[in-house]
Write a structure and sequence with these properties.
- The chain is of the alpha/beta class.
- Helices cover 22% and strands 34% of the residues.
- The chain is built from eleven helices and 30 strands.
- The strands form seven sheets. Strands 20-21-22-29-24-27 form a six-stranded antiparallel β-sheet, with no helix packed on it.
- It is globular.
- Mean pLDDT is 91; it is low at 165-185.
């Protein structure tokens, strides 16, 4: 059995303003109609012996992760919630302990949730080719066959070849190996060493040597072998993660790790903690149109361009513009005489950057956090387990929101101490609890929730419920909610 472990804990700060701390890039549809997380799960379909995926994610993202998997018709084997971020080694360790419950010892296929792979069939073939080595106890990493001297990736130097495996066309090996034909061979190599992101001259020397691949952050190994090697090289991680899983609690579809035990775990990557130290690390080359989409320029590279090299999304008008990435969420973007730039428009922020400088977008995010500005963390549109809401206007003592409630969903039974609310239904049917009264409202009907009155909003219908909410009062923060009952387990 092969269990996909999807790591979905990143913040994606280089793709601000679309990617934000509470709604990061892996949960966005940046390439195609599906989100990055959904694409990661979908591209594995067809692999022999594949189990349902387990996802390791931030607690704040849990409902979005569950909903996106539900949209795919997938029932995850686990959604493991990290109370704090502790890098990839602890994330994989808790997934391994969870997978071994009941005496099982499956193969784990560890994949970041935010990568692009344009040739899914090639990926599946290479994964299946690596299974026998993983079953023998090897710890596999998939090295990307480089297309040029990249300074934004770590590198893996290949050592001696281990074995050749006959595969169909589309699978490849490192420099000098066949990359086409009806029966190409893929060679697995012992890992000579991992190296950090190089400067440009060093990266060119790596490419010229033919011995290096890009570090993809994708791995495969038996759960017990990973724990065994972690216990050998980083026993404090194993101890903390074992306690975190043993003390975990199930909450709906989620596994809540013991917060204190996991917080005590050292933060380390799986590369540092295990792969750079074990004698059983193996690199299997992969050439399947991979990108980690770590910046706006990387997203431009994997997209479809017009005849002038522009990649556009939304309402965009161009005149004498070349090689740009232009993304409009709500308003029109007009670009005249613009070349090699990124322009991204959202409801509350606009990014303008030269494509050569997009790696520095993270510095803007750092400034926003230092100034304690919400734009670093929140979108104006916020997602909840029952649907979403978007702030469309606000000023002193009032706020206007557009609220969407999914069919069959309901908000918590709650009250507010500092604000009253007016609700106007514009689409669908609302069942509203207001004190001891329960009413049904249809389109163009409205109600008023006085300050301090217990209330609940439900959608009993088959289509999304949409309404406009007008809040008024002395304090309008989201923390002015006292909950009395919630089907989603929120306090």
């Amino acid at each position: 059995m092969l269990v996909p472990i999807i790591l979905s804990g990143g913040a994606g700060t280089r793709l601000w303003p679309l990617s934000r701390e509470l709604y990061p890039k892996q949960l966005l549809p940046l390439v195609g109609d599906k989100t990055m997380l959904q694409n990661t799960v979908s591209r594995l379909e067809g692999i022999s012996g594949l189990a349902e995926p387990a996802v390791v994610c931030n607690e704040n993202h849990r409902f979005m992760v569950a909903e996106q998997l539900k949209q795919l018709g997938r029932a995850p084997s686990a959604i493991i919630l990290e109370p704090v971020g502790r890098n990839t080694a602890p994330a994989v360790a808790v997934a391994a302990f969870q997978a071994m419950e009941g005496g099982e010892d499956p193969l784990l296929l560890v994949l970041p949730a935010d990568h692009v792979v344009r040739q899914a069939e090639g990926l599946r073939r290479v994964i299946e080719s690596a299974v026998p080595l993983a079953e023998q106890g090897k710890l596999i990493t998939f090295g990307i066959v480089p297309t040029g001297p990249e300074t934004g990736y770590g590198y893996i130097r290949a050592g001696a070849p281990l074995e050749s495996r006959k595969l169909e066309a589309g699978s490849v090996k490192l420099e000098g190996a066949p990359v086409t034909g009806h029966a190409s061979r893929v060679t697995a190599f012992a890992v000579s060493r991992f190296v950090e992101k190089p400067d440009l001259e060093t990266a060119r020397s790596y490419i010229d040597s033919g011995d290096y691949s890009w570090n993809s952050g994708m791995f495969m190994f038996k759960a017990s072998r990973l724990v065994q090697e972690l216990d050998r090289f980083a026993p404090e991680i194993v101890s903390a993660c074992r306690k975190a899983v043993e003390g975990a609690e199930r909450d709906l579809d989620f596994i809540r790790l013991d917060a204190d035990a996991f917080a005590a775990c050292p933060s380390d990557s799986i590369d540092y903690a295990v792969m750079e130290k074990t004698e059983d690390a193996v690199v299997v080359p992969l050439d399947a149109g991979w990108s980690d989409v770590g910046s706006w320029s990387a997203l431009w590279e994997v997209g479809e361009h017009d005849c002038h090299g522009n990649l556009v999304y939304g309402d965009v008008l161009l005149n004498d513009a070349k090689n740009n990435y232009l993304h409009a969420e709500g308003r029109m973007i007009a670009a005249v005489g613009l070349e090699d730039h990124v322009v991204v428009e959202t409801a509350d922020a606009v990014l303008v950057a030269h494509r050569d400088k997009v790696q520095d977008v993270k510095e803007i995010v750092s400034q926003l956090k230092m100034q304690q500005r919400d734009e670093a963390i929140l979108h104006r549109k916020a997602f909840r387990p029952w649907g979403s809401y978007e702030c469309i206007d606000s000023a002193e003592r009032f706020q206007v929101k557009r609220i969407t409630v999914n069919p069959g969903a309901s908000l918590s039974l709650q009250r507010h101490h500092h604000r009253a609310e007016h609700w106007i239904v514009v689409k669908g049917t609302a069942r509203i609890t207001k004190g001891d009264e329960v009413v049904l409202l249809s389109e163009n009907q409205s109600t008023y929730i006085p300050l301090g009155v217990t209330h609940r909003l439900e959608n009993p219908g088959k289509i999304p419920l949409e309404l406009i909410e007008v809040q008024s009062g002395s304090y309008l923060g989201e923390d002015d909610i006292e909950r009395f009952g919630d089907v989603y387990g929120r306090s």
